[in-house]
Specification:
Elements: E1 11-14, H1 30-35, H2 37-43, E2 47-50, E3 54-55, E4 67-71, H3 78-90, E5 94-100, H4 109-116, E6 128-130, E7 138-139, E8 147-149, E9 155-158, H5 173-188, E10 193-197, E11 220-221, H6 223-226, H7 232-242, E12 250-254, H8 263-267, E13 275-277, E14 286-288, E15 291-295, H9 300-317, E16 319-322, H10 332-337, H11 344-355, E17 360-364, H12 385-396, H13 401-411, H14 414-417, H15 448-451, H16 458-471, H17 475-480, E18 482-485, E19 492-498, E20 503-509, E21 515-517, E22 524-529, E23 535-537, E24 540-543, E25 548-553
Parallel strand pairs: 1-2, 1-17, 2-5, 5-10, 7-11, 10-12, 12-13, 13-16, 16-17
Antiparallel strand pairs: 3-4, 6-9, 8-9, 14-15, 18-19, 19-20, 20-25, 21-24, 22-25, 23-24
Length: 554
């Protein structure tokens, strides 16, 4: 694969509402990010992905945009963003923004004009169907029908997500041109690119036929009819040609459900995007990403198999975007380590295992501290639309309220959206005002101040692996090298990173006990370990509990 500038980046994702409150109103803001740039520079990250900061009624926390070219007042001003871009640039840190073009807010000017005049051009910017009954049985991602009745008219509009997020009609060429102009306007501002939200939803099944119901509500998941539909490539190719191809930018697509055999179209040499997120291993604990109550038992072997299947498929065609947390996922320490979440060495092993995979590493705010899930006592404590829907769907499907609450605590997107804990004071130093969302802990034991400078802590470990990947003697192999799985025992994930001139073998023990791993023929030289000594055993390599080891083939 041809080398690209963005392959050497380390990305840090910021949920601005919860990062740092600079004006003491309980809501994080752009100036708060600027004030914490020294923290991010010290960590070693080189790019920030900032979740939506656009004008929005915040029904879905910014993923419902009412004005693409305005900043939400609670986050600051356009001048604040321009200052952030400039100050980050001085530290060698680039900025990418979320791009949300599958839908807008129902408060967007386009939609308001579509409602006020069904004969206007804006009416065709969205998907409306006339009639006295709901057009089909598609279920939205956030629950209930995808169709919402227009007040005062025998007409419905489609929303794949929330009721206040009407889908845009990508079949309309005029709309597409408007979207491309918005994308280019932002790239002209000096941002480095975009993370592109829900982009595989832009093409629908135009037959609008109902599907076989898959729940007691008689509805069918809309992902069967409004995601990854035939013909989507025409839209994605045109989007790229009219926008991304005109700038030296990076694009990371949220593209769940793309078959591995079609990855070449998405991330190949002439693919639509620089890379995509693969959610198969992120959703290993549930049967469906949109049904949290369908729990799945899994072990480290299942985790390993899903990760390596993903790596091998992505490597075949292009580049991967590697993550274990984001704003839509629970905390990785809780989800992947279960009762090992309180062991710092277990958290470090999880970090190193994904960080040294082939592809671009993404770190979500607080992940570098080993943050954990909360445990809410009632559904009334949740803010997230999806969490509230999942609770009531679980009850409707026959689970008790206690079981439904447990499912939501395990998977709620609010787990990752709690305010960032800068210290152990009230509200974690995030704000002096009561935050918009309750803390994971009001006086957090896991916080940045406690971990910075602590050589045994998770934060300093993240600093060390970032330095090792970016500036260490094996950076070329760790960044550009290929990857292959290595045979290992049930509780160990192992893989090989290699170039023509260099081979690194990596083992990550996810067990509380020691594990002995077979070594391939040839001399081995230790080059890195998470803690302790590298112990060679007469039968191979002896890994200590939750130890990670990297050997060089000599």
């Amino acid at each position: 694969m041809k080398k690209q500038w963005w392959q050497e980046e380390v990305v840090y994702q910021i949920y601005p509402k919860s990062f740092y409150d600079s004006n003491h109103d309980g809501i994080g803001d752009l100036r708060g990010i600027t004030e914490k740039l020294d923290y991010l520079e010290n960590l070693g990250v080189t790019m920030l992905w900032i979740c939506p900061i656009y004008q929005s009624p915040m029904d879905d926390n910014g993923y419902d945009i009412s004005d693409y070219k305005a900043i939400a007042p609670e986050f600051g001003t356009m001048e604040d963003l321009e200052e952030l871009i400039g100050e980050a640039g001085k530290r060698g840190i680039k900025i990418i923004l979320d791009l949300v073009v599958n839908h807008t807010s129902d408060e967007h000017e386009w939609f308001q004009k579509a409602l006020s005049d069904s004969g206007s051009r804006f009416h065709d910017y969205y998907i409306f169907k006339e009639g006295g009954q709901i057009p089909n049985n598609w279920r939205s991602v956030f629950g209930g029908s995808v169709w919402e009745k227009v007040p005062g008219r025998e007409e419905y509009y489609l929303h794949s997500f929330g009721k206040k997020q009407p889908d845009l009609n990508w079949e309309n060429e005029e709309l597409r041109r408007e979207l491309y102009e918005i994308v280019n306007w932002w790239l002209d501002k000096g941002i480095a690119g975009f993370r592109i939200d829900a982009i595989t939803f832009v093409k629908k099944d135009l037959t609008w036929k109902s599907k076989e119901p898959d729940g007691v509500d008689g509805l069918s998941k809309c992902t069967k009819s409004s995601r990854n539909q035939p013909g989507i490539g025409v839209f994605l190719r045109e989007l790229k040609e009219h926008t991304f191809d005109r700038y030296p930018c990076v694009t990371v697509a949220e593209a769940p459900g793309v078959p591995y055999g079609e990855l070449g179209e998405f991330i190949g040499e002439n693919g639509y995007f620089s890379m995509i997120f693969d959610f198969r291993y992120a959703d290993l604990d549930i049967d469906s990403g949109s049904e949290w109550f369908k729990r799945v038992d899994w072990g480290i072997k299942d985790f390993r198999d899903k990760i390596m299947d993903s790596q091998m498929a992505l490597q075949k065609y292009g580049w991967s975007a590697n993550f274990i947390e984001n704003h839509d996922q629970p905390r990785a320490a809780t989800k992947y380590l279960k009762d090992g979440q309180d062991n710092p060495e277990a958290v470090k092993t999880l970090a190193a295992m994904y960080f040294f995979l082939r592809g671009l590493p993404f770190i979500y705010q607080g992940q570098e501290l080993g943050m954990q899930n909360f445990n809410r006592g009632s559904i009334g404590e949740f803010d997230d639309l999806s969490s509230i829907d999942q609770y009531y769907r679980a009850v409707e499907e026959g689970y008790t309220k206690e079981e439904a609450l447990r499912f939501v605590n395990l998977r709620s997107r609010d787990n990752a959206r709690t305010p960032f804990p800068w210290d152990n004071t009230q509200y974690g130093g995030f704000s002096v005002h009561k935050p918009w969302l309750g803390m994971a802990e009001e006086y957090p034991r896991i916080n940045a101040r406690a971990q910075m400078g602590d050589k045994g802590g998770v934060y300093e470990f993240y600093r060390s692996i970032i330095r090792f990947r970016q500036k260490g003697p094996y950076r070329n192999c760790l960044i550009y090298g290929r990857i292959e799985p290595v045979l290992s025992s049930e509780n160990v994930i192992a893989y090989k990173r290699y170039t023509q001139g260099e081979t690194l073998l990596c083992w990550f023990n996810f067990s509380r006990g020691k594990e002995v791993e077979m070594l391939p023929d040839g001399g081995m030289e230790p080059v890195w370990q998470s803690y302790g000594e590298v112990c060679f055993h007469e039968n191979g390599l002896e890994l200590q509990p939750y130890q990670s080891v990297m050997l060089k083939l000599v």
